[in-house]
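User: Okay, second chain of the day. Same drill as before: sequence in, structure tokens out.
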Amino acid sequence: MDSVKKTVSSSHAKPSRSVLEQRRRRVVALVESLPEASAIPGGDGHLSLTVRGKRFGYFLDNHHGDGRVALNCKTAPGVNETLAAAAPDRFYIPKYVGHRGWLGLWLDLPKIDWDEVEGVITEAYRLVAPRTLLAQAGISETGNQDFDAEESEADIESR
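Assistant: Same drill. Structure tokens below.
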């Protein structure tokens, strides 16, 4: 699978900088709604998503000059490949970490499914957070059925 990030299709207008800033704030709010999770600013406007010092994702803005805004998060085995194959307009395999099961989700598309973004963040958090924090958040230790690698491509595309 090609791990190179695609450029914004000419058929889709890229959202304004203010809209992208609102999306960044919304991602931060989703992360910070999880017990002890933080969105820690890094270089070049990126954010590192962590819980108790363990990284579960990144918010990336113009990563390596690609001109894109994306969320990269840990996933269960196979989920990243399933989602990237089923909906390549929304998902991709991130360079450098994709081979370790990470998933990329574009956040600079004209429309964003925020339930999907929340599901990706919550699932990544579930993979690294201690059981006590999962229980506190009401998150099952067995995973989010919305991001099951066995889910059919038609189910994923219909979202």
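The radius of gyration is 15 Å.

User: Thanks, on to the next one.
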